Amino acid sequence: MWFETYNDQILQLLTKTTSQFSSYFDVDEVAKVVKAHKNGINKEKEIFLLLV
User: Hey, how many other C-beta atoms are within 10 angstroms of the C-beta on 39?
Assistant: First the structure.
């Protein structure tokens, strides 16, 4: 799946504290979503929406 291929890059992109994204979203909570998906809980839709 797309997430497995780009897991590390997605986590880095969504949790970068110097990005504009981090001023709108709590990057710690975003990291929890990404890590939960990596651990087997389907969060594909949530991650996709954060990326678009």
Answer: 8
pLDDT higher than 80, residue 3: no
Under 8 Å CB-to-CB from 38, ≥6 apart: which residues?
3, 7
Q: Distance between CA atoms of 42 and 34, rounded to whole angstroms? A: 10
pLDDT grade, residue 1 (50/70/90)? Answer: low
At 4, the amino acid letter reads E
- As a whole number of Å, the end-to-end CA separation of the chain is 18
The predicted model scores a pTM of: 0.83
Question: Rounded to whole angstroms, how far apart are CA atoms 3 and 24?
Answer: 23
Which among 27, 35, 28 is positioned nearest to 7, based on CA atoms?
35
